UniProtKB/TrEMBL annotation:
InterPro entries: LTTR, LysR_HTH_N, LysR_subst-bd, WH-like_DNA-bd_sf, WH_DNA-bd_sf. It comes from Pseudoalteromonas agarivorans. Belongs to the LysR transcriptional regulatory family. Signal peptide: none annotated. Keywords: DNA-binding, Transcription, Transcription regulation. GO terms for molecular function: DNA binding; DNA-binding transcription factor activity. This is LysR family transcriptional regulator.
Protein backbone atom coordinates (compact mmCIF):
# COMPACT_ATOMS: atom_id res chain seq x y z
CA UNK A 1 0.00 0.00 0.00
CA UNK A 2 1.36 3.44 -0.94
CA UNK A 3 2.43 5.26 2.23
CA UNK A 4 1.43 8.62 0.66
CA UNK A 5 -2.18 7.43 0.49
CA UNK A 6 -2.17 6.74 4.22
CA UNK A 7 -0.50 10.08 5.00
CA UNK A 8 -3.17 11.86 2.99
CA UNK A 9 -5.92 9.92 4.76
CA UNK A 10 -4.54 10.83 8.19
CA UNK A 11 -4.21 14.51 7.23
CA UNK A 12 -7.80 14.67 5.99
CA UNK A 13 -8.92 13.09 9.26
CA UNK A 14 -6.91 15.66 11.21
CA UNK A 15 -8.16 18.72 9.31
CA UNK A 16 -11.61 17.40 8.35
CA UNK A 17 -11.14 19.38 5.16
CA UNK A 18 -9.73 18.34 1.78
CA UNK A 19 -8.52 21.84 0.98
CA UNK A 20 -6.66 22.32 4.28
CA UNK A 21 -5.16 18.85 3.97
CA UNK A 22 -3.90 19.79 0.49
CA UNK A 23 -2.25 22.95 1.85
CA UNK A 24 -0.51 21.06 4.65
CA UNK A 25 0.71 18.36 2.26
CA UNK A 26 1.76 20.88 -0.42
CA UNK A 27 -0.35 19.22 -3.11
CA UNK A 28 -3.54 20.20 -4.93
CA UNK A 29 -7.00 19.49 -3.58
CA UNK A 30 -7.73 17.32 -6.61
CA UNK A 31 -4.63 15.24 -5.74
CA UNK A 32 -5.98 14.73 -2.22
CA UNK A 33 -9.35 13.60 -3.60
CA UNK A 34 -7.63 11.25 -6.05
CA UNK A 35 -5.50 9.67 -3.33
CA UNK A 36 -8.49 9.10 -1.07
CA UNK A 37 -10.40 7.49 -3.93
CA UNK A 38 -7.40 5.24 -4.63
CA UNK A 39 -7.26 4.19 -1.01
CA UNK A 40 -11.00 3.53 -0.86
CA UNK A 41 -10.89 1.50 -4.06
CA UNK A 42 -7.93 -0.51 -2.83
CA UNK A 43 -9.67 -1.32 0.45
CA UNK A 44 -13.12 -1.72 -1.09
CA UNK A 45 -14.80 0.59 1.44
CA UNK A 46 -15.85 4.22 1.84
CA UNK A 47 -13.67 5.98 4.39
CA UNK A 48 -15.49 9.31 4.63
CA UNK A 49 -19.04 10.60 4.68
CA UNK A 50 -18.78 13.68 2.49
CA UNK A 51 -21.21 16.47 3.27
CA UNK A 52 -20.88 20.20 2.65
CA UNK A 53 -18.43 21.59 5.21
CA UNK A 54 -18.76 18.38 7.20
CA UNK A 55 -16.42 15.46 6.51
CA UNK A 56 -16.87 12.52 8.89
CA UNK A 57 -15.21 9.13 9.12
CA UNK A 58 -17.21 6.02 8.33
CA UNK A 59 -16.94 2.97 10.60
CA UNK A 60 -14.26 1.42 8.31
CA UNK A 61 -12.42 4.76 8.35
CA UNK A 62 -12.41 4.75 12.16
CA UNK A 63 -10.93 1.24 12.14
CA UNK A 64 -8.28 2.19 9.57
CA UNK A 65 -7.03 5.29 11.42
CA UNK A 66 -4.94 3.64 14.19
CA UNK A 67 -3.44 1.19 11.67
CA UNK A 68 -2.56 4.04 9.29
CA UNK A 69 -0.82 6.00 12.05
CA UNK A 70 1.10 2.93 13.16
CA UNK A 71 2.24 2.13 9.62
CA UNK A 72 3.36 5.72 8.98
CA UNK A 73 5.27 5.90 12.26
CA UNK A 74 6.89 2.52 11.66
CA UNK A 75 8.00 3.50 8.17
CA UNK A 76 9.45 6.80 9.37
CA UNK A 77 11.34 5.11 12.18
CA UNK A 78 12.65 2.49 9.76
CA UNK A 79 13.99 5.20 7.44
CA UNK A 80 15.74 6.87 10.37
CA UNK A 81 17.32 3.63 11.61
CA UNK A 82 18.53 2.60 8.17
CA UNK A 83 20.00 6.05 7.49
CA UNK A 84 22.06 6.24 10.69
CA UNK A 85 25.81 6.46 10.24
CA UNK A 86 27.85 3.41 11.29
CA UNK A 87 29.12 5.14 14.44
CA UNK A 88 25.66 6.28 15.52
CA UNK A 89 23.30 3.99 17.42
CA UNK A 90 20.24 6.19 17.86
CA UNK A 91 18.72 9.35 16.46
CA UNK A 92 16.68 12.00 18.21
CA UNK A 93 14.99 15.00 16.61
CA UNK A 94 14.22 18.30 18.28
CA UNK A 95 12.70 21.53 17.08
CA UNK A 96 12.38 25.05 18.40
CA UNK A 97 10.71 28.21 17.20
CA UNK A 98 13.02 30.90 15.74
CA UNK A 99 12.96 32.83 19.01
CA UNK A 100 13.78 29.73 21.04
CA UNK A 101 16.87 29.24 18.89
CA UNK A 102 17.86 32.91 19.17
CA UNK A 103 17.47 33.20 22.91
CA UNK A 104 18.14 29.70 24.23
CA UNK A 105 19.13 26.76 22.08
CA UNK A 106 21.94 28.42 20.12
CA UNK A 107 23.99 28.87 23.29
CA UNK A 108 24.60 25.22 23.96
CA UNK A 109 23.61 22.89 21.15
CA UNK A 110 27.27 21.84 20.85
CA UNK A 111 27.24 20.86 24.53
CA UNK A 112 24.25 18.59 23.91
CA UNK A 113 25.98 16.94 20.96
CA UNK A 114 29.20 16.34 22.90
CA UNK A 115 27.31 14.99 25.93
CA UNK A 116 25.42 12.40 23.87
CA UNK A 117 28.00 10.36 21.93
CA UNK A 118 26.57 7.74 19.61
CA UNK A 119 23.37 9.75 19.16
CA UNK A 120 22.59 11.44 15.86
CA UNK A 121 20.85 14.75 16.60
CA UNK A 122 18.46 16.38 14.15
CA UNK A 123 17.75 20.00 15.13
CA UNK A 124 15.32 22.16 13.17
CA UNK A 125 13.48 25.46 13.26
CA UNK A 126 9.73 24.86 13.30
CA UNK A 127 6.67 26.98 14.03
CA UNK A 128 4.73 26.04 17.16
CA UNK A 129 1.73 24.54 15.33
CA UNK A 130 3.92 22.48 13.03
CA UNK A 131 5.96 21.19 15.96
CA UNK A 132 2.81 20.10 17.77
CA UNK A 133 1.54 18.29 14.69
CA UNK A 134 4.85 16.50 14.16
CA UNK A 135 4.94 15.44 17.81
CA UNK A 136 1.48 13.93 17.48
CA UNK A 137 2.56 12.17 14.29
CA UNK A 138 5.68 10.96 16.17
CA UNK A 139 8.00 12.24 13.46
CA UNK A 140 9.47 14.72 15.96
CA UNK A 141 10.80 13.59 19.33
CA UNK A 142 11.05 16.83 21.26
CA UNK A 143 9.84 20.41 20.87
CA UNK A 144 11.11 23.40 22.87
CA UNK A 145 8.44 26.11 23.09
CA UNK A 146 7.29 29.26 24.85
CA UNK A 147 3.59 28.39 24.67
CA UNK A 148 2.96 24.78 25.76
CA UNK A 149 0.45 22.80 23.69
CA UNK A 150 -2.57 21.57 25.64
CA UNK A 151 -2.89 18.11 24.12
CA UNK A 152 -3.53 14.97 26.17
CA UNK A 153 -1.12 12.84 24.13
CA UNK A 154 1.83 15.10 24.91
CA UNK A 155 3.94 15.40 28.05
CA UNK A 156 4.79 19.05 28.74
CA UNK A 157 7.43 20.18 31.25
CA UNK A 158 8.67 23.64 32.20
CA UNK A 159 12.47 23.63 32.27
CA UNK A 160 13.62 27.19 32.92
CA UNK A 161 12.80 30.89 32.90
CA UNK A 162 14.12 33.39 30.36
CA UNK A 163 14.38 37.01 31.58
CA UNK A 164 13.37 39.57 28.93
CA UNK A 165 14.43 43.16 29.56
CA UNK A 166 13.76 46.57 27.95
CA UNK A 167 16.84 47.84 26.13
CA UNK A 168 17.55 50.84 23.92
CA UNK A 169 20.26 52.15 21.67
CA UNK A 170 19.79 55.58 23.25
CA UNK A 171 21.18 56.44 26.68
CA UNK A 172 18.38 59.00 27.06
CA UNK A 173 15.63 56.35 26.88
CA UNK A 174 13.15 56.42 29.78
CA UNK A 175 9.74 55.08 30.63
CA UNK A 176 8.28 58.22 29.02
CA UNK A 177 9.77 57.73 25.54
CA UNK A 178 10.65 54.02 25.39
CA UNK A 179 7.74 53.09 23.08
CA UNK A 180 7.91 56.24 20.94
CA UNK A 181 11.51 56.24 19.75
CA UNK A 182 11.80 53.62 16.98
CA UNK A 183 10.26 50.91 19.14
CA UNK A 184 10.65 47.37 17.73
CA UNK A 185 8.00 44.85 18.74
CA UNK A 186 9.24 41.26 19.06
CA UNK A 187 6.69 38.47 19.26
CA UNK A 188 7.75 36.42 22.29
CA UNK A 189 4.58 34.33 22.27
CA UNK A 190 1.00 34.57 23.49
CA UNK A 191 1.72 35.26 27.16
CA UNK A 192 4.12 38.05 26.24
CA UNK A 193 1.59 39.60 23.84
CA UNK A 194 -1.02 39.80 26.60
CA UNK A 195 1.49 41.34 29.02
CA UNK A 196 2.74 43.76 26.37
CA UNK A 197 -0.76 45.03 25.60
CA UNK A 198 -1.01 46.22 29.21
CA UNK A 199 2.40 47.88 29.15
CA UNK A 200 2.35 49.61 25.78
CA UNK A 201 2.02 53.37 26.18
CA UNK A 202 3.23 54.48 22.77
CA UNK A 203 1.37 57.19 20.91
CA UNK A 204 2.10 55.45 17.60
CA UNK A 205 2.32 51.75 16.67
CA UNK A 206 5.76 50.07 16.69
CA UNK A 207 7.75 51.12 13.66
CA UNK A 208 8.99 47.57 13.13
CA UNK A 209 7.60 44.15 14.06
CA UNK A 210 9.40 40.82 13.95
CA UNK A 211 9.07 37.28 15.24
CA UNK A 212 12.83 36.96 15.69
CA UNK A 213 14.79 38.51 18.53
CA UNK A 214 18.05 38.42 16.58
CA UNK A 215 16.57 40.63 13.84
CA UNK A 216 15.38 43.15 16.44
CA UNK A 217 18.76 43.17 18.16
CA UNK A 218 20.67 43.75 14.92
CA UNK A 219 18.26 46.48 13.91
CA UNK A 220 18.53 48.56 17.08
CA UNK A 221 22.31 48.12 17.13
CA UNK A 222 22.59 49.51 13.62
CA UNK A 223 19.71 52.00 13.47
CA UNK A 224 18.87 52.80 17.07
CA UNK A 225 15.59 52.13 18.78
CA UNK A 226 14.30 50.04 21.66
CA UNK A 227 12.89 46.56 22.21
CA UNK A 228 12.29 43.83 24.74
CA UNK A 229 15.18 41.36 24.31
CA UNK A 230 16.29 38.38 26.43
CA UNK A 231 19.02 39.40 28.85
CA UNK A 232 21.31 36.62 27.65
CA UNK A 233 21.27 38.09 24.13
CA UNK A 234 22.21 41.62 25.15
CA UNK A 235 24.62 41.15 28.07
CA UNK A 236 27.78 41.78 26.05
CA UNK A 237 26.26 44.82 24.33
CA UNK A 238 25.25 46.31 27.69
CA UNK A 239 28.77 45.79 29.03
CA UNK A 240 30.28 47.55 25.99
CA UNK A 241 27.85 50.47 26.22
CA UNK A 242 26.35 49.68 22.82
CA UNK A 243 22.90 49.25 24.40
CA UNK A 244 21.30 50.53 27.59
CA UNK A 245 19.00 48.78 30.05
CA UNK A 246 15.98 51.05 30.56
CA UNK A 247 15.41 50.12 34.19
CA UNK A 248 12.32 52.24 34.83
CA UNK A 249 10.40 50.26 32.19
CA UNK A 250 8.90 47.08 33.58
CA UNK A 251 10.63 43.87 32.51
CA UNK A 252 9.19 40.39 32.10
CA UNK A 253 10.23 36.77 31.51
CA UNK A 254 9.08 33.73 29.61
CA UNK A 255 8.94 30.16 30.79
CA UNK A 256 10.47 27.67 28.40
CA UNK A 257 8.74 24.33 27.98
CA UNK A 258 9.58 21.00 26.40
CA UNK A 259 6.97 18.71 24.90
CA UNK A 260 7.12 15.12 23.69
CA UNK A 261 4.69 12.30 22.96
CA UNK A 262 3.93 10.28 26.07
CA UNK A 263 4.23 7.02 24.05
CA UNK A 264 7.56 7.88 22.45
CA UNK A 265 9.77 4.80 22.47
CA UNK A 266 12.87 6.94 23.09
CA UNK A 267 11.63 8.38 26.37
CA UNK A 268 14.86 7.61 28.25
CA UNK A 269 16.93 9.37 25.59
CA UNK A 270 14.53 12.32 25.56
CA UNK A 271 14.77 12.71 29.34
CA UNK A 272 18.57 12.70 29.11
CA UNK A 273 18.43 15.53 26.58
CA UNK A 274 15.89 17.47 28.66
CA UNK A 275 18.22 17.30 31.68
CA UNK A 276 20.94 18.89 29.56
CA UNK A 277 18.80 21.78 28.31
CA UNK A 278 18.82 24.02 31.42
CA UNK A 279 22.63 23.84 31.40
CA UNK A 280 22.70 25.69 28.07
CA UNK A 281 22.90 29.04 29.85
CA UNK A 282 23.02 30.51 33.33
CA UNK A 283 19.31 30.36 34.01
CA UNK A 284 18.47 27.41 36.20
CA UNK A 285 15.22 25.39 36.08
CA UNK A 286 12.29 26.93 37.86
CA UNK A 287 11.67 25.29 41.23
CA UNK A 288 8.01 24.33 41.29
CA UNK A 289 8.06 23.24 44.94
Amino acid sequence: MDIDLLKTFVEVVRTRHFGKAAENLYITQSAVSFRIRQLEQGLGVNLFIRQRNNIQLTAPGERLLPHAKMIITGMQRAKVDVALADNMHKQISLAGTPNIWDAFLQFGITNIVSAMPGVSLVAEVKAQQESTRLLLERTLDLAILFDPPKVDELVVERICELPIIPVSGYDTATNENFFDNQYVYVDWGTTFSLWHARQFTGKTPPYFRTSTGRIALDLILQCGGSAFIPEVLVESHLEKGELFHVKDVEHTSRDIFVAYHRDNEQKELIETLINLLPKINAYQPVDEH
